[in-house]
Structures are given as structure tokens and as C-alpha cells.
């Protein structure tokens, strides 16, 4: 049952970041294709280490804020549209 709780937390975290990413794309005037959005899944967890070893890079974090999105991905999408 503990694993179910971990998976639920990962899905919640990923859902929040997917929502943040889609909002950021709209702010940058990059339209996410409507036929792709329903197929996005928050179930991936390759980016999460479940071994108990965590690496906190960069400056101190403010709780309740999201990590910045990768700028290279946004720039890639902008170039693809242009």
C-alpha cells in the first residue's frame, strides 16, 4: 500500500508540472496541439529517484513553487512553429 501512495504522489507532482508547462507554452504563444494534449500522461517517473539518494542542485528552494521549465525545450518548440 505504501507503493500506491508513492505512485499517487508522483502522478500528482507530474500533473502539476504538466499543467504548468502547458500554461507556460500558452504564455509564450506556443499552441499545444489539441489532438496531443489528451494523450499526455503523468504516469512517467524516470526522473524520480526512489533509491533514497537525492541530489539538490542549485539555490535554496521556496516551497510551494515549481522548478523552472527547461528553456531549451521551449525554444525548440518555438523554432519548430516558426
Please describe what this structure looks like.
With 82 residues, the protein is mostly helical. It has a domain at 1-45. Helices cover 45% and strands 0% of the residues. The protein has helices spanning 2-27, 71-81. The N and C termini lie far apart (48 Å).
DSSP summary, beta strand count: 0
**Main beta-sheet strand count, sense and barrel state:** none
Global outline: globular
Radius of gyration: 15 Å
Fraction of residues in H or I helices: 40-55%
Distance between the termini: 48 Å
**Mean pLDDT value:** 76
Kindly estimate the percentage of residues that lie in beta strands according to DSSP: under 5%
* Low-confidence segments: none
Tell me the series of helices and strands, N- to C-terminal: HH
Number of helices: 2
| Alpha-beta content class | mainly alpha
Overview features:
globular, mainly alpha, 82 residues, 2 helices, single chain, 45% helix
List the helices and strands and how they pair.
Blueprint: H1 2-27, H2 71-81
Short account of what is shown:
This protein is mainly alpha-helical. It has helices at residues 2-27, 71-81.
Amino acid at each position: 500500500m505504501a507503493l500506491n501512495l508513492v505512485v499517487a504522489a508522483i502522478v500528482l507532482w507530474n500533473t502539476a508540472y504538466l499543467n504548468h508547462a502547458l500554461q507556460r507554452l500558452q504564455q509564450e504563444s506556443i499552441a499545444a496541439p489539441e489532438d496531443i494534449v489528451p494523450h499526455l500522461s503523468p504516469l512517467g517517473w524516470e526522473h524520480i529517484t526512489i533509491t533514497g539518494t537525492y541530489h539538490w542542485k542549485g539555490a535554496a528552494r521556496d516551497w510551494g513553487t515549481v522548478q523552472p521549465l527547461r528553456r531549451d525545450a521551449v525554444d525548440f518548440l518555438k523554432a519548430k512553429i516558426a
